[in-house]
Amino acid sequence: MLKGENHNLDILGDAAIFDNVKRFPMRVKCASLAWRTLERIIDEREQKKAGE
Q1: Distance between alpha carbon 1 and the CA centroid of its chain, in Å?
Q2: CA gyration radius for the chain?
Q3: N or C: where does the chain have the smaller number of CB atoms within 10 Å of the terminal CB?
């Protein structure tokens, strides 16, 4: 969605606000930072659990 892909905005709820970010390509990295951080935390926790 941040890169201009079409998505059904009705099912996205509050996340639909990111639809406007595609108009400002220089902001895509900023807008996706929290998402990428959350993904990394989840991945690290899953790896940690697998190693226990």
Answers
A1: 9
A2: 14
A3: C
Q: One-letter amino acid identity for 37?
A: T
CA distances from 32 to 1, 4, 47, 49, 51 (A): 11, 14, 23, 26, 29
pLDDT digits (tens, 9 = 90+) for 16-32: 777 777 777 777 788 78
Which string of DSSP letters, residue by residue, matches 2-49?
A: TTS----GGGTGGGGGGGGGGG-GGGHHHHHHHHHHHHHHHHHHHHHH
Q: Compute the residue count for the chain.
A: 52
- CA nearest to 18, candidates 39, 34, 40, 37: 34
* Predicted model pTM: 0.52
